[in-house]
Queue: 2 jobs
Job 1
Amino acid sequence: AQKVTQAQTEISVVEKEDVTLDCVYETRDTTYYLFWYKQPPSGELVFLIRRNSFDEQNEISGRYSWNFQKSTSSFNFTITASQVVDSAVYFCALSEFGSARQLTFGSGTQLTVLP
Amino acid sequence: DTGVSQDPRHKITKRGQNVTFRCDPISEHNRLYWYRQTLGQGPEFLTYFQNEAQLEKSRLLSDRFSAERPKGSFSTLEIQRTEQGDSAMYLCASRVVEEQFFGPGTRLTVL
């Protein structure tokens, strides 16, 4: 069965610091998808990125970057020059290549960016 | 607004009562999901629809829970004889490719 582990429960940084959120996953499938979602205090989950298991290229989008390493089953998320508006709970999730492709979420990392 | 919508946003009920939640997915999305999120945890999958067919149900979905998507558009999730352990945020999501887009959720409090 699939599993996602986010070992960091809470992280607190000062504005403009870089911060990396860790995600480790387990799956027996060779084809799968990895995701990051942001849940701000308002509560709505916001999609950030999807990666396919066969594409290990790292990705950068503005201040956000993602490092996918199949060898260590990790999909880490880095925010560069953090801002107060980045404060939220961040979830890593996995879906396997099946009919439903339901998401299995980690328990989330609460990021607090202090001014 | 073309996002996923859910109604109501908040529901307070007494133990033993029945409640029903509604989800309106993004219009062109034929796949719809229900998840449950408790405090401090990530969402957990409950059930999946492709069009009007309910194709997958989690073991979390006890026989007190039932979900429908009668015309392949909106969906309802009903909880019968609510228990205090049902208190949670109930999230709906829809997708057409791989990304699931979530609604704002319905927060259920069972007293």
Note: The CA atoms of residues 16 and 81 of chain B lie 4 Å apart.
Job 2
Amino acid sequence: GAGVSQSPRYKVAKRGQDVALRCDPISGHVSLFWYQQALGQGPEFLTYFQNEAQLDKSGLPSDRFFAERPEGSVSTLKIQRTQQEDSAVYLCASSLGLAGLTGELFFGEGSRLTVL
Amino acid sequence: AQSVSQHNHHVILSEAASLELGCNYSYGGTVNLFWYVQYPGQHLQLLLKYFSGDPLVKGIKGFEAEFIKSKFSFNLRKPSVQWSDTAEYFCAVNEGAGGTSYGKLTFGQGTILTVHP
């Protein structure tokens, strides 16, 4: 597609449920990021992939959060045993090369997770 | 760790008014600076960026920003706003290339701009 695609756009989960959020980056983009955006806040870094390698997961808030990008394209963010504090918009972004050099991330529209 | 501070949470202006949104960051090394914009119902998109060179950078839709290294600031400006500029604006920073940078951005908390016709 023309842009970064995320699904589902909206997800309501009961506390304790597992959820999986999908990101389909722009074709050929090497770099892929996940960000978490709480209500009224800016996006906060979760994790970074360069192709299939997860090079930085320092932003993942707990071991309940897990991300993968097994073939270097589509990525999945999984949250186990969801808690109310996990409620947020989860943004995926991709970049053609090393984004530190190209300077631009292309963001998807996000997946809004609400945990009841 | 880096942090980015945006001074105003919500700015309300009338069309044709001038705009300045403040952004300060805390990081002593080389940085790349960005402003991203999110229009209602749309995804975040790049407005402008500064890597090096002329500290006054121009972006899309008549926006510009000035990097003042001594003040750790990167304020966004527009001489005359339009109703269509209504959006949320985010300042962001990453460590400059040449270090371990791969583009990890630290964002400010955002400023909502409402422009009345």
Note: The two ends of chain B are 41 Å apart (CA to CA).
